[in-house]
Design goal:
This protein is mostly helical. Helix content is 77%, strand content 0%. The chain has one domain. The chain starts with a helix and ends with a helix.
Length: 284
């Protein structure tokens, strides 16, 4: 259970760091590239070995989804707006939960279904009801990127569970994470060379420092998720909703404490529903 709590802490800290990146005017893409580099270095250093060829194909797709997820969120925010993009990003847990029921043999019970519904309700309530004035409503496939955000995130979690359960051992966790972030780094480099070849990527010590902090935290988030899936004694159909609402509740409280953000009735209700969902899911 402590790995589950550590994963929630890392997920919450990730939201805090991204908020600080905006406040400190850090160049986001530079920080993300530095984040990938430190994840690779950490993974290789902690594992003491290079990635094993037997799982390279899985880490390739894991890294590809890591990179494409951030790109899709950026496009979807412009096309569909912040609210719809946030909605799709939070609903992505539906995919690994359904796959766990249908293909991984995880049992279905009434408390689990009720808990998952409450968790989804909490995630939906937490989305701010603000008009998105900057959306590109003239595009024919306006909401396609937002749908792809949902699919990409869900497939990422599903692949992570599959690899943890059927491909790698706990001794491979660090090397697998390193290879996944290495492929994400290579995708970023390819993006820079093709799409941004006429632009200069601004990078300074501040961007690299914040990227380093982001990388250490992101490495921890993936590592503790793998450990939670393997050692917590809970099924993945319970773990994914618990981590989602746990990060929601902790991030909401952190935003209030550190950034003095207002809560509002919707966020308070979302946190209450989230806590109730966690209790029911653990009991079910």
């Amino acid at each position: 259970m402590h790995f589950l709590l550590l994963q929630i802490c890392c997920g919450t800290l990730n939201h805090i760091l991204l908020k600080l990146l905006d406040i400190k005017k850090v160049h986001l893409f530079s920080a993300i590239v530095a984040n990938y580099v430190i994840c690779v270095v950490l993974g290789v250093s902690l594992s003491g070995k290079l990635p094993v060829p037997s799982f390279l194909i899985y880490s390739f797709f894991q890294g590809l989804m890591l990179f494409s997820g951030m790109a899709l969120i950026g496009i979807a925010t412009v096309r569909s707006g912040v609210s719809i993009t946030a909605l799709c990003a939070r609903l992505n847990l539906l995919i690994p939960v359904v796959v766990a029921f249908l293909f991984f043999g995880e049992h279905v019970s009434l408390p689990k279904i009720v808990g998952i519904i409450l968790a989804l309700s909490a995630l939906l309530l937490a989305i701010p009801r603000t008009p998105d004035l900057s959306t590109d409503s003239t595009h024919r496939f306006q909401h396609l990127p937002a749908i792809l955000v949902l699919i990409n995130g869900g497939c990422y979690l599903t692949l992570l569970k599959y690899v943890q359960g059927y491909v790698i051992t706990p001794e491979d966790y660090e090397a697998y994470i390193a290879s996944s972030f290495l492929f994400a780094l290579l995708c970023s480099s390819l993006y820079l060379s093709i799409v941004m070849k006429r632009k200069t990527l601004r990078s300074n010590k501040k961007d690299i420092l914040w990227g380093l902090l982001l990388g250490v935290n992101n490495f921890g988030a993936v590592y503790f998720m793998l450990r939670a899936l393997g050692d917590s004694g809970l099924e993945s159909s319970v773990i994914f909703p618990i981590t989602s609402v746990g990060v929601l509740v902790a991030s909401t409280i952190s935003a209030r404490v550190f950034f003095l953000e207002s809560l509002g009735h919707r966020k308070v209700l979302a946190c209450c529903l989230g806590c109730l969902a966690v209790v029911i899911l653990q009991a079910g």
